[in-house]
Amino acid sequence: MITIEGKDDCICKAVGPWDSDLTVQPTRERDKGQGFVDKNLRRFTLRFGDQKSADIRLGLATSDWRVVERWQLSERSTPYNHFFVSSEQVIMRCPEQKGTDIISEVTQTITDQATRLVVFDREGNQYESYGDEGGKSGSLVRYIHYFRNLSKDAIDHIEFQAKPYEYWITFRNVSLQMGQKTQVEVDIKKPGSLLVGEAIPDLDGIKIDLPAEQTKDNMILLCFFDMNQRPSRNCVKELTRRARELEQEGVVVVAVQTSKIDQERLDEWTKENGVPFSVGMIRRNAEITRFAWGVRSLPWLILTDNEQTVRAEGFSLAEMDDKIKEINDAEE
């Protein structure tokens, strides 16, 4: 259980040893102990096998919600003939009236941010949904949203909103066995400081052919991408176009596919596009691996110096040359 001070409108996500997403819910008033009645408590449940200890990560989203898409309903729209789409790869099936409740399904590729569905009625009142994950496949995830005691005729419009997980709290070496004591270490990462200044994480969770002699004494530019998404494909293609130039500057480019796809399909795509650098793929628990690398959106670029210390992350291709120059200037 965790306590969040100073802000009620925050979303929490937990990542543990056996679940990519652990259920995080507000604690009921009747379950709060003495002295915690007025506290904003969140409870999450771990599920594990025979492990004696594990690392647990909590993501906290505290910023304002960003409106990703705004959909206006039509009287002729039904769940069987109308799907609402977005430029950010979000699809909502037209809401359906079930008794006194509204049910809507949303399929999205946004898995690294907190998201929600919000309904506004004709009088300007706002309704937030409650619901659960309805299934996941590759980079796609489906959510079932429920709005209690609401008539479809009263809806003016629906908004799909998102905000990033800005703070990451890691609890290392948490005991998972009754009676076993461990020395727990707590590490808090704030916005913009997930990896910068730290050694590059190991590649244990990534299947890739990258000999140590290839990266020795060189800067490394990692691109986490998903070939199912157009911005990711465009990023890898641009790095391919500039691969020779970057090599001359002492920069080794590495790309990592984040969602699970057929290896032959990935190999075929890289061959067709003439990708000259190493391309790997996350081989297990994509969510945990992405969080370990601080990947908050796709594509995601990480740049190290020639000692493999992270110097920049989450920047755009337009900023890449300036980031490389800053590292070179600092080393002279």
Commentary on this structure:
This protein has 332 residues and is an alpha+beta fold. It has three domains: 2-62 and 166-187, no CATH class; 66-164, Sandwich (Immunoglobulin-like); 194-331, Glutaredoxin, CATH 3.40.30. The protein has six helices and 23 strands. The chain has helices at residues 212-215, 230-241, 243-248, 263-272, 286-292, 317-331; strands at 2-4, 11-15, 24-26, 40-44, 53-61, 66-72, 83-85, 90-93, 96-98, 101-108, 113-121, 126-128, 130-137, 140-147, 155-164, 167-175, 185-189, 206-207, 219-225, 251-257, 278-282, 300-304, 310-313. The strands form five sheets. Strands 7, 8, 9, 10, 13 and 14 form a six-stranded antiparallel β-sheet that branches. A six-stranded mixed β-sheet has the order 18-21-20-19-22-23. Strands 2-5-16-17 form a four-stranded antiparallel β-sheet, covered by helices on one side. The chain is globular and about 65 Å long. The protein starts with a strand and ends with a helix. The mean pLDDT is 83.
